[in-house]
Amino acid sequence: MNDKPKNLLILQILEILKKYSDAYHPMKVSDIKARLEKDYEVVVDRKAIRRNLDNLISLGYNIENDECARINKWGEEELVQTNWYLEGDFTDSELRLIIDSLLFSSQLPTNQCKKLIEKLQGLSNVYFKNKVKHVINLPSNTSQNADLLYSIEVLDEAIEQKKQVEFSYCTYDTDKKQRPRLNNDGTPKKYLVNPYQMVATNGKYYLIANVDKHDDVAHFRLDRIKDIVLKPQPRKPQNKVLGWEQGLRLPEHMAEHLYMFSGKSERVVFIAKKHLMNDLIDWFGKDIRISSDKTQKDEIRVETKVNLKAMKLWARQYGPYVKVISPKNLVDEIKEELLQSVKNYEEE
Question: Is the pTM of this model over 0.85?
């Protein structure tokens, strides 16, 4: 044994198991002994390693092993423990799923995304790193806003404490750079907001809130929020927000706001091709009302409550397979926009 403190040994063994073991790569005591010598220049006997493995299990670490029979020096059969490995908090498939979600996210700046992936890789062993090293492509349209993680922290605190926040809100200019919206005098416009919930939809993160000087619901993209400040004053009660007199019903709210447009929701009726059923459930949820038309076996009649701006965009997206029949004002708006679209493609 060298002169290093003995109480470090148990931590060194734990680190070795974290780094070099899993169910497919168990370690014998001799393997752990060799790693101690190579990585930490620590020389100990096998009994000390076994004793510390037992101590780690007593402390609650999920360390697995196999039992096998062997004949001892007295010719007696005895059970011995071997093939030790640490069962991690995450499986490799779980970590891979989280990492993939980061790789395909456009919310985080590339450098922050890479740092998070490195931290996630550190939760597994050396074999996991080899599995994901070939996945390096990051989207080219990632956010430029380095404030995202800080904004989430402040909003978490504000929602928990039921406080207001104030921030600038950015939009892209023609030079492809984000800049804060401005007041008439050229100063950055500040939004005093009552925050209620953060949600993820369509690959984006949003804040569901109320702008304090208005009565209705507002949605803000988190990656466009900058210079956020937690305010001391309490936020507006939810039942004071238009449409939330009975409180926020999140599943209903998300189903009604397909693209997170603000504004009220109304009952909409439309005809759709039956092959759109998967898309209908994905977009509107299972609360939609469906009836069949016996004369048109490939079509269904759908009723739902939805934000009209969102419905107009959705109907145009699925144009060849959808026909909105009410309300009339929405039908007229869709017709007008479709006619304008045709004009845009007419030859002069």
Answer: no
* Closest of 305, 204, 210, 215 to residue 259, by C-alpha: 204
> What are the tokens at 18?
């974290």
Q: What angle do CA 20, 22, 23 make, to 5 degrees?
A: 150
What does the chain come to in residues?
Answer: 348
Q: How many angstroms separate the CA atoms of 126 and 66, rounded?
A: 22
- pLDDT at residue 1, as a whole number: 47
Coil, strand or helix at 288:
coil
Phi, psi (degrees; rounded to nearest 5) at 147: -85, -5
> Which architecture characterizes domain 6-86 according to CATH?
Orthogonal Bundle (1.10)
Instruction: Determine whether 263 is exposed, middle or buried from the number of CB atoms within 10 Å of its CB (0-12, 13-18, 19+).
Output: middle
Domains 6-86 and 265-344 share a fold: no
DSSP state of 291: E
Q: Is 286 helix (H, G, I), strand (E, B) or coil?
A: coil
* Residue ranges covered by each domain of the chain: 6-86, 92-132, 148-248, 265-344
Q: Which residues pair with 210 in a beta bridge?
A: 194
pLDDT digits (tens, 9 = 90+) for 229-276: 999 999 999 999 988 887 787 777 776 776 677 777 899 999 999 999
Contact 276, 296 (CB under 8 A): no
**Percent of the chain surpassing pLDDT 70:** 90
State the average pLDDT for the chain. 86
| β-bridge partners, 82 | 66
Taking the CA atoms of residue 193, residue 310, residue 268 and residue 297 in that order, the dihedral angle to the nearest 10 degrees is -150
230 and 157 Cβ atoms separated by less than 8 Å: yes
* 13 touches 53 (CB < 8 A): yes
Q: How far is CA 19 from the centre of its chain?
A: 27
Fold observed for domain 265-344: Alpha-Beta Plaits (3.30.70)
Residue 138 — pLDDT band, cuts 50, 70, 90?
A: low
Which of residues 76 and 45 earns the better pLDDT score?
A: 45
30: tokens are: 């001799």
